[in-house]
Each structure stands twice: as structure tokens, then as C-alpha cells.
Amino acid sequence: MNNEFIESHIHDIPDFPKEGIIFKDISPLLASAKARSITTELLVRDFRGQTIDVVVGIESRGFLFGMLLADALNAKFVMLRKPGKLPGAIISQEYELEYGTDTLELQENAISPGDCVLIHDDVLATGGTAIAAAQIIQKAGGKVEGFNFVIELDFINGREKIKDYKIASVLHY
Questions:
Q1: Pick the catalytic residue: 7, 59, 98, 160?
Q2: Is residue 69 assigned to a domain?
Q3: Angle formed by the axes of helices 33-45 and 62-72, nearest 10°
Q4: Where is the Phosphoribosyltransferase domain (predicted)?
Q5: pLDDT tens digits for 126-140?
Q6: Which H/E stretch holds residue 29?
């Protein structure tokens, strides 16, 4: 019942951001207090009772539920950003895209050695960003306890890149 309710708040937008892509728009989900609350509880359930010191949200839509997860788990929230968005000393991790590369950045002292970290993003697609997030957390000395996602696109099989970690997704397409 809860998953059906949440799914009713995800809208398909055909041909966005380019032709042939069906974009899963979470804006209606964010606009509903009830849908946000249920989604947050479903995201937290697999990690409740486990030590989570830090929730890392991946730019930018990972920030939206990432903060709510951190509150629910009584954990610190840290942003993983694209290049040039964070002040001070940073740790960087480059990763492969379908055509080219990208980079994620983390403030140098945001993760303490030994911190237990939950990585959150809105969608798991190819898994490239997710594995880069794990690598940067490990560079900082953190221990990745798992990943969670609002949506997982099963047909792309991004889970394969992060299969060595605990993975929880609310909706599967």
C-alpha cells in the first residue's frame, strides 16, 4: 500500500532530458507532506538500529531526503558536491560517465576516520556516481554502511557496481 501511494506521486516525463528517456519526476512526492513522510520512513527502516554517524547526500536531489534521513537517524548530514561548490580543503573523486568523466567533492574534515556512513541519492541508475561516492567516503576514512535510493532503475543494473554494500530502494522500475 505505501509503495503504491508513493508511486502515485512519481510522474513520468517522456523525452526529458533528451528524446527516448522517461524521466521519473519526484516533484509531486516532495510536494506532499504525507508522501515525504512515508518515503522517509521507508528509506530509514533498513538502517534503523544500525550505527549511522553520517548521512551523505549526493548532489543535488540526494540532499532532499538526505537531510530527513539524517534527522531520523540522529546523524550528521554531509553534502557530496560537484566541483567548485564547497569551500576550504576538499577531497575529490573522478568517475566515468557514459561519455567522459565527472568529479565529486567532499569537504576534507566532513567525515571522521571510522565514521559509519549511509549514502543517499534519489535514483540508482548506472551506479557510477554511487561507487564514486563510496570511494570518496573511504578516502576520507569513513566506512560505507550502505546506500539507499528513492528509485532504482533495475533495467540499467547499476546495483552491480555497488553489490558489495547493503542497498535499499523504495521503488523499482
A1: 98
A2: yes
A3: 70
A4: 46-144
A5: 999 999 999 999 999
A6: helix 27-31
Q: Give residue 96's domain range.
A: 48-172
CATH number for 165 = 3.40.50.2020
Pick the catalytic residue: 7, 61, 105, 159? 61
Q: Is 108 among the residues known to form the active site? A: no
Predicted TM-score of the model (pTM): 0.96
Q: Is 81 a catalytic residue?
A: no
8 Å CB contact between 50 and 145: yes
Return d(Cα 109, Cα 74) in angstroms, integer: 19
Residue 145 lies in a domain: yes
Structural domains counted in the chain: 1
**Closest among 28, 33, 31 to 7, alpha carbons compared:** 28
- Write the pLDDT tens digit of every residue in 16-72: 999 999 999 999 999 999 999 999 999 999 999 999 999 999 999 999 999 999 999
